[in-house]
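Sample intake — Aminotransferase class I/II-fold pyridoxal phosphate-dependent enzyme
Collected from: Oceanipulchritudo coccoides
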Amino acid sequence: MPFDIGNILRPKNTILQRCQRDEGTKARLKYNPWYHHIDSQNGCRIQVDGREMLMMSSNDYLGLSNHPRVIQAGQEALQKWGSSTTGSRLANGSRSFHRDLEQQLAAFLGKEDAMVLSAGYLACMGAVSTFAEKGDLILVDRNVHSSLWSGILLSGANVERFAHNNPSDLQDILVTEDRDRPKMVVVEGVYSMEGHIAPLQELIEVCRPFNCFFVVDDAHGLGVLGDRGQGTVGYLDRTNDVDVICGSLSKSMASTGGFIAGSKTIIEYLRSHSKQTIFSAAISPTQAAAAKTSLDILQDEPEHRERLWENTRYYKRMLNQIGANIWESETPAVPIIVGNKERAYRIWKALMDEDIFTVISIPPGVPPGKDLIRTAVSAQHTFEDLERMVDVLKKSLKKV
């Protein structure tokens, strides 16, 4: 190859160099804990590289992703409407099935209206960035999901973090602020890594004198909490005190996409100003049909939620018996705290070697020292599945 002096004189591509040097990517490639390709799935059984494995980290809490009614609804929608709406809701992408789903979601959540978006991440981002602006103050639980942080950064508002699930710390911040300054409080209903439920009653009472706009991401509460599965806000009887409920359709709703629910005024404002809505294609006919049918099943067949909680109680009881640290989880999202990154990788690998599929989370996804194996219970698990998981985990914790 001819010598090219330009290769020496040309400025270095510093962004490319940063990608090449990134230690996080090197560690991921070394341990290979993420991006595993699942070849097939039947309930809680999956095939990975020719091996049958037990899925212990899915968000399919109610096990509806393979429900015959959900599959049939998706097939019928595909046949009737085709594969895509090929446009945003603002332009050519709105369909009658979108409004049907939105109206049903709003009624179920106890709100006047709702909007569905093409991803849960976009919904939660838009639930913040659409309503907060430069000069406002956002008070946020320091453990909220990345999608909410993205919305906070996009809004341009000032930010104050308060200690996780700590109403007292929130109050200490609020009393120092100008009462007339527009304020937004952002929390999750259920924290997906910790399994904690937000103390909404106490948080709302703290905020009441300060006229805060209150946003709850209930992606992991919808379908799981409440006597009808209406989620954290309904379960704690705070529907009228929360301005916006947002979340994902990919957990209990067995689909993909996201939603934002609130008053008619709030949702109409959202339709006018949400970049996440205006510049994103609408969810597909199949997605909408799967979500709507899952919502029907949630109300028609309460046995799925009942089975989920039977499994959750049984699983946690066994974990407590072996001394596993589950971070005081209150929900079917059950972390196994192992303490450091290296140990998390090794325990995850030990579980994989025994054909149990789990997911690890390390900083910055969790606080330092809270490196964990994230497990999640499904209504489709059997007691035998959960016993197997705990038995292998017990051996792995002793070995590693």
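Post-analysis note: Residues 30-61+302-399 form a domain with the Aspartate Aminotransferase, domain 1 fold (CATH 3.90.1150.10).
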